[in-house]
Amino acid sequence: MEPIQWSRWMSVGNDALDEDHRVLIGIVNKLYDETNREDPVVIDLILDELIAYTRDHFAKEEAQMQRLNYPTFAAHKQLHDSLTRQVEDYRRTVRANRQRISGEEVFLFCSDWLGKHILKEDIRFGEYADGEAELATTG
């Protein structure tokens, strides 16, 4: 198990969204810290922080998608909503089963969730946004 490392491969080509992704990675990486992983109260607080920041980030990302008329906006928004519900459900599970769910499990779940979303879905949007910007400058 390793903390998430930001790499240029995660960049969506938008400084503000990339910075949000770095912050989200930082929040998830708090769960990598062994002291944090051993304290159910801290795990709960980190999940609260992750959910709050994710909602804010998703709202900004969705606004940009709408502004650029992203063709798969509705599907991406549904994915955002589903991912948020998934983490909220996981937080409920953690709260109900504090002694049976390890901090390591929470870290692995959150890092997998975040990594897949950035590397798959957000990169797609970044490529679209780059294409739109290029059209605007040449058109």
Automatic annotation (TrEMBL):
Domain Hemerythrin-like: 13-122
Signal peptide boundaries: none
Pfam families assigned: Hemerythrin
Membrane spanning stretches: none
Gene3D superfamilies: Hemerythrin-like
Cross-referenced CDD domains: Hemerythrin
Record key words, sorted: Iron, Metal-binding, Oxygen transport, Transport
InterPro entries xrefs: Haemerythrin_Fe_BS, Hemerythrin, Hemerythrin-like, Hemerythrin-like_sf, Hemerythrin_metal-bd
Family of this protein: Belongs to the hemerythrin family.
Protein name according to UniProt: Hemerythrin
Lineage of the organism: Bacteria, Pseudomonadati, Pseudomonadota, Alphaproteobacteria, Rhodospirillales
